[in-house]
Amino acid sequence: MTTKDTRSLHMNWLHFIVLLLLGFPACEEPFRPELDEFDYVLVVDGAITDLPGPYTIRLSFSSGIYSSEQQPVEGAVVTIIEEGGEQETLTETQTGTYITSVDGIQGTAGKSYKISIQLKDGTQYESNYQVMPSSISIDSVGADLEYHYLSIEEPEVPGYQFHITTELAENSDNYFMWSLESTHKYRSDFTLDYIFSGGIQPYPNPTEFMTCWRTDQINEIYTFNTTVLSQPKIERLPLNFARADERELAIRYSLLVRQFTINEEAYTFWNNIQRQIESQETLYNNQPFQIRGNLFNIDNPDETVLGFFMVASQNEKRVFVDPPAGLDIQSTYCEPDYMSYGFLGLFHPSNWPIYIYEDETGQRALGIESCFDCRKLGGTTTRPEFWEE
Predict the structure, then answer these.
(1) pTM for this prediction
(2) pLDDT digits (tens, 9 = 90+) for 68-112
(3) Cα separation of 112 and 82, whole Å?
(4) Is residue 20 part of a domain?
(5) Count of domains forming the chain
(6) What CA–CA distances, in Å, run from 181 to 5, 167, 205, 226?
(7) Is residue 12 exposed (0-12), middle (13-18) or buried (19+ Cβ within 10 Å)?
(8) Is residue 115 part of a domain?
(9) Could you give the count of Cα atoms lying within 13 Å of 167 in the half-sphere of its Cβ?
(10) Is 254 domain-assigned?
(11) Of 33, 80, 238, 349, which is the most buried if we count CB atoms within 10 A?
(12) How large is the average pLDDT for residues 119-127?
């Protein structure tokens, strides 16, 4: 994963958030009116922190309520500005994605920053200056084996409940948002012993595509503040729950926790989004309400602009866990197809190459590609630099 990817706050649930912010109704029998026109709304996603860049800003226009697509905004001039200091115009590396240079602007606690955006048609947007808070360090990230009720069909699911503890802060009022990223090691079920492309040939390295690592952004929002605590220190705040009865925890699992110390305005924005997402998962949903971010059209302040340009101090911590002892975790998902092996000659060349597995008794079998090649399950055979065994 590149540095620009790790610095980005873009998450897969962003479009879902857009639907919520536009006031998509939560009702038992939704009314779907015919809409001939839709006012596209600018969506801004990105941040500057006190860690080295590059920083990523993503611009898009929200789509209609019946579409899951968003339209990236190309050709914009995006500038991050330090009050009374330097500024940097970002480079568009792909449509709608704007990135600072590796040795470009970097946030400093106590200084103020804003973003300026000019679209191709000349429309200008910006945020107000925000002071970057001082960083509050993570003391520890831990995991406890727990059993969670997920549904009537799954009343006691085993898994790791992750939690975070922060260092004691100097000030009483502190605001946080956490972004999580998981990486797990896994293996394909079959060795690639032979390959068929009109004839059967031994494969030179049967375990070449057997071990992979996959990294995923956890699409949940976590926020908290210390204003209600007797002392400004968070103790064992629950984060995500990783169920232990699936492939992700079969070998080894790692969680990267990025902690952002933010201002009260940013906290209110992310906390409101967290509440709306959680309300959509309950039986009695709350009516969504529009959450305005900190960006505005210079010439038309009443125009709706979605998203938030975040100015935050950041620190992070990674933790590794092994499969819980004593649990019978499912680690194989493929059944060898011995019967189809006898019909190799009937497969059309468009299906070549065909992978072949040979079991301990010498019998040969077929299977789908993901049973042989772990990359087909979204991972890579390249071991991450941070990985620890």
Answers:
(1) 0.84
(2) 567 999 999 999 999 999 999 999 999 999 999 999 999 999 999
(3) 6
(4) yes
(5) 1
(6) 11, 21, 32, 24
(7) exposed
(8) yes
(9) 14
(10) no
(11) 80
(12) 96
